[in-house]
Amino acid sequence: MSKCINGVLKGCRRLPEKSPIMLGNNQLWTNFACKKFISGQQKSVEHTVTKYHHSQQSTSVVTNRQHGQGLNTHVVKIVNRECSCGKWNQFGISCSHAQKVCDAYNISAASIVKDYYDQMAYKNTYSKHFEPVQSEDYSDVPELELVNDTIICISTRPG
User: Fold this and answer.
1) Residue 104 sits in which domain range?
2) What is the mean pLDDT of residues 126-130?
3) 16 within a domain of the structure (yes/no)
4) Which Pfam families does the record match to this protein (predicted)?
5) Whole-angstrom distance, CA of residue 66 vs CA of residue 53
């Protein structure tokens, strides 16, 4: 157990000391969430809302072509908080497609960002006191047998 905790805290040692302090500048969210959200807003200007399916409460968004890429269609379901691009599900911050739909239907895109990016939630996470384990003699040894997963993942991507 101590190795697990040490592995988690190892990454925290490299954080600059200013990280928690920088959140005090009247920001609603953490720096990561702010950067992601603003980046999504800038990208959403280039998108177009094309269709709205009333019974499924889904909207289609088409991205513009830039540098040989684009013209992709993504399906956004605001009620379920999901987008077919997967970024909204992955990060908990509304992607550019979802932000475009929110803009089109006068919904605050900031209201659909997950609560764990809130500044108070961030501060509460690190407000507790951690006691490191002094020696391996005091740690619990789990009596679990590790078994490899028999399912082999095969990539469907070309190349």
Assistant:
1) 47-113
2) 81
3) no
4) SWIM
5) 27
